[in-house]
């Protein structure tokens, strides 16, 4: 399962004492080849953690042989000492595998501004290497969890090849990217340049459209590794479609496990002049605390939807907007239409549909409601 | 007091049945002259309520003789019928005063997408006109409250002239403008063009820097009326300074009464390359739900401050940022410095100071923490 479903991969997840709970906190994913093609995308936050600074260099040549990940500390804003910890982690993995450290991606997650204990982390790498197994995916997925309540894994089958994936993330989920670490694996033969094309296409419509709380992390990393062990080179279109399916599945799992959320909200913007317009409008609604609190209160407050649309630069006529919630068109031509009392918000899934009447493009952005539990979890996280 | 402190003004606030509680909900402020100069600023939201659409035309020539305001319904996205209600309201005021409706600003606040009862509203105008008094300011200030727990009033004394003001607003407070209605009065002689200059200078550093919840209203209006009744023409610089003082005082009152807030947070950005950069950085921190929830939890989580700074386009070196909370420099050169345990967040007032080390400009942005009470109030507002 998970990242070890495709052939050519081993993985492990062990407890190294970085988490005070004693839970698994170091994961290792190794690509045994024969190919070692890879592609990655990172957070667009300008404040980036040490593992991101390191891994950006690692992925530059399209070759990655292993990914080592830890929870229990983000290693962000920890200065030169923190960077040395990241470097030492990659070196230790490389020593065990007989490869170069420059082919080892490092990912960390947890609190910012906290040094990880380097000795504990390196001992964790030793233990993870010793535990590497062809069915180690689930352990690895468990080891990267922070406030996640469940681990996130996916497998998508192709024609004689497959894609596996794991993800972590529950808060600080916002576009470009959500706060998350994602490792995807495939035994298809896919050259690094094609992997890059496919990954960017897949993340653009999945992780990049997830906006749980508008907060963007310093540590986000998505890496895809191709082992080529199936010997099959799928058409790029097929591979991209399967990778998009895997990323969307993981994105929805992240959404469903978002900290303290009561509702998953899918905001679809129709008939926009451009896809960018559709995404901008969807995102502005997804970031309205007032709207998100209303959904928590099961209140179909479409006025807050219109107020959010009005803050964007998208093309539309303010006097001719239609809005539906769960299929009930509560607003047409910017005036009240069907009775909001007909909108049933008792279930977890909520759809908001906005018709901009300005073109032919569309996009869906996902978010959660704003709840007491969100405030509770995020006011108590580090204390 | 309030808008009736300067000479030349009468005001009233009455109950017209628009609020189900029976509280005052219609306010009227009349400028008896001899001058009727005015200036206004409105929400920059592209979705604008009917009173805003009307009042934008009213203020165009710099002459305003009265402002009529109602709570109990925003008259936004209520279509042509709603616009006619606004127009009828202005006409009724004009009839009573023997003036033209085109000199009457109309402001409404409350739920979006709800028709106000026109008969109730017009009867309220009749009652408000009958109740007009030279000491009616406090009643008017009470009549514009919605979720406000207290009315907001201010008086600033000049040399033989004064400025009075009232404001409402407790949620949907975000820049350009906060959700609020503000009426300012003065008995100074100030031509409309100078009033406009002074008002824009004053709001730029007061209401525009208040960002309680990142949500921008459809109804915001700030209007200043000059009666000239003192006969004194102050230097524009003096008047602007006094008007800025009045607006800042009202902005802080709005901040202190923000829905459900436990803390007032002043974010000061130092040594920015431009004032715009300083405001952008301050606003990005003010909009971080994670940071605001941490303050509610009395957790000096400076990592969330850095993560917010990183989402901006301001000039800075990500490896050389300093951050203080309540005067304790918890982060210097982007690494941990003084012990966060020394940051006492038990009081209501919190300061965050960011040193960008990129220039000489600075700005302060105000916000609140994100609390259980905020979620509660905004999930239950319309139900």
UniProtKB/TrEMBL annotation, chains A, B:
Pfam families per UniProt: ArgJ
Phylogenetic lineage: Bacteria, Bacillati, Actinomycetota, Actinomycetes, Propionibacteriales
SUPFAM superfamilies documented for this protein: DmpA/ArgJ-like
Site feature location: Cleavage: 178-179
One GO MF term: L-glutamate N-acetyltransferase activity, acting on acetyl-L-ornithine as donor
Name of the protein in its database record: Arginine biosynthesis bifunctional protein ArgJ
Catalytic activity: N(2)-acetyl-L-ornithine + L-glutamate = N-acetyl-L-glutamate + L-ornithine; L-glutamate + acetyl-CoA = N-acetyl-L-glutamate + CoA + H(+)
UniProt EC number: 2.3.1.35, 2.3.1.1
Record's subunit section: Heterotetramer of two alpha and two beta chains.
Organism from which the protein derives: Nocardioides taihuensis
UniProt family annotation: Belongs to the ArgJ family.
Chief location bin: cytoplasm
Binding site for substrate: 146, 168, 179, 259, 378, 383
InterPro entries from the UniProt entry: Arg_biosynth_ArgJ, ArgJ-like_dom_sf, ArgJ_beta_C
